[in-house]
Amino acid sequence: MIGAFCKWFGAFCYYEIADLKYTARMIEQPRPRTTAKITCFRVAGSALDRMRAPRSFWTSLQKFNLTPGVVLRHAGLPATVLSNDQLISTPQLFSLWRSIRELSKDPAAGWKLMLGMESAKFHPTLLAALHARNYRECLERHARYKQLCSAQEFRFSEKGDEFQIETSWPFVPDERPPVLMIDAVFAILVELGRRGTMTKLNPKRLELSRPEERDSGLEEFFGCPIKYRCARDILVLHTADVELPFVTHNEELVQMLAPQFDHQLKTRELKQSTIGSVKWILRRLLAGSRPDVALVAKELGMSERTLQRRITEEGMTFRGLLNETRKELIREYLSDDSVEITEAAFLIGFEDPNSFYRAFRTWEGKTPAEWRADQHRK
Length: 378
Fold this sequence. Notes:
By secondary structure, the chain is an alpha+beta fold. Helix content is about 50%, strand content about 10%. The protein is built from 18 helices and nine strands. A hairpin with a 7-residue loop joins strand 2 and strand 3. Helix 3 crosses helix 4, helix 12 crosses helix 13 and helix 15 (about 320-335) packs antiparallel against helix 16 (about 340-345). It is globular and about 65 Å long. The N and C termini lie far apart (about 70 Å).
């Protein structure tokens, strides 16, 4: 449109683009600058790549005749992921979604999973978003509180009639997220708007980086044009829709939930346990290696002396944490019959089987094979 306007005047026109701001200039007649309003919700620099898969995620698999155990095995993850204490990383989360796609053979599984979730069973952070004053506040709360339960970031860009939403996973910046996962993320954002306003709210368009896939049902669910093979994955809403009030607004409930979540976000870095951070890093580093305090300190961005002091302040030693992490991991691996005992030993940093057997007897008072047999009887 600007190009046609410039040609009509016989003028030369060029653009300057930086940080989603652009300026259109003409030799005869300068134009004012138009700037997009950008809001980013980023994961804290000290955050660790760990999250918990909610119970509703596992129960929703039933609609595709899938069980958590089948999906976990296909994704190469231990059954202990179902435990409330078991956290997963972003790559593991990606593996889960890819397994759902391969096992369900349904290209529409992403948005179907979100569509079938009951509001009453929403995670508390989703409830806080659903009961916001309007759609804008809902989106902001969801993006902000998502940091409490997932290593996921959001970017809102608002200009004119368009409110664009992008999402990313900072711990795997070079890995393309599973297509079903992208569909699910955008679907829950649209579902929150529809349930909150109690209207058939439709986006302006959906831009996807992948090629079109038959039977995905995306146009049916989102109710808007879909553009494929785009540079990025973007959900584009109408700015006017973002201001719509929520029929589900419940100020009393929001006042119960929001301050708690806001406080958690502000104090998360201060309250983060050094012991928990060390054990998480050890879990990543143990396979086939013997991580020492220097390597863990480097991962945490602190000196060895500082790390040792903080561990001591929390009543532990580095060697004690290493053994404790190994004990937790070996129980997980031995609970999975597909993992050989020698392989399990390697995965917790033992290259010598004899050393592993001696250590295991010290921990459990029996051999690995005896322990595994006891678990089967239970």
